[in-house]
Amino acid sequence: MSAVVPYAWLDGCVAAHRRLEAAVAPVTDEVARQPSLLPGWTVGHLLTHLARNADSHTRRVLAAQRGEVAPQYAGGPAQREHEIGTGSTRPARELRADVIASHGALERAWAATTEGVWTTGLGLRNETEPVTLADVVLARWREVEVHRVDLGLDGAGWESLATDFVDAEWERAVATLGERVPAGTAVVLVPGDRPSRAAGAGPTPVVVRGSPCVLLGWMLGRGGAPSWPELPPWE
Predict the structure, then answer these.
(1) Low-confidence ranges of the chain (pLDDT < 50)
(2) What is the pLDDT of residues 57-99, one digit of tens each?
(3) I need a labelling partner for 68 at 20 to 30 A (CA). Which of 39, 82, 156, 182 fits?
């Protein structure tokens, strides 16, 4: 088995797709119009975003197969927001079918990607920043895991994050935490099952103690105890 193909991340993301599909299967038109746990977004907004996000990953993978480097959204943030807004009010059956179809297209694109493309292929993040295809897989996995909780459909909380996702995401989240804590603030993460980590700078560090799933949710801008510093939301 090739070491350059991110098999573990691919398997984890495909499993997350199946969990998401099961969570949205009972969605009705009424539920689709309800607010999600993400401020300002309904369930329909989030489902549309998840489908269009999958499409954006498919485009980058297919472009890499052709030897090209494509942006995530050809029209930039404006295209992303337009597609989410216009698609969010569709009937529930269309939203569900869209999610499933977009998953299938992305998974077929991954399956058709050769080891050589996985090794050197690139996409663009934020329209200008090169990222490897492996990074793109982890980014998609993050979208699905986090937004499944944001949907608020099946009682899933942060403790429902897949263990293998938490392990894959933990180091990246810790590495960027210092950029996201408020100025003049230092924190000490105490996850219990792995080494404690410090981030930020300040005279009196705040101890942030909890399970890795809960701490990861907080680092992604969701939840946390009242005494913990507030972080900007990740979307």
Answers:
(1) none
(2) 999 999 999 999 999 888 888 888 999 999 999 999 999 999 9
(3) 82
Residue-wise DSSP of 106-163:
HHHHHHT--HHHHHH-EEEETTTEEEEHHHHHHHHHHHHHHHHHHHTSS---GGGS-H
| pLDDT for the residue 235 | 56
Q: Using the 8-state DSSP alphabet, how is residue 42 labeled?
A: B
Instruction: Identify the pLDDT of residue 24.
Output: 96
The predicted structure's pLDDT at residue 1 = 56
Question: Among 132, 137, 107, which residue's Cα sits nearest to residue 121?
Answer: 132
For the chain, state the CA radius of gyration. 18
Q: Kindly list the domain boundaries of the chain, sorted by start residue.
A: 7-156, 164-219
178 DSSP 8-state letter: T
Distance of CA 130 to the CA centre of its chain: 18
Is the CB of residue 186 less than 8 Å from the CB of residue 206? yes
Is the CB of residue 205 less than 8 Å from the CB of residue 198? yes
pLDDT of residue 111: 98
The CATH T-level fold of domain 7-156 is: Four Helix Bundle (Hemerythrin (Met), subunit A) (1.20.120)
pTM value surpassing 0.85: yes
Beta bridge partners of 122: 132
Q: Summarize the chain as % helix, strand, coil (round to 5).
A: 55, 10, 35
Q: Which residue has the tokens 């937004």?
A: 147
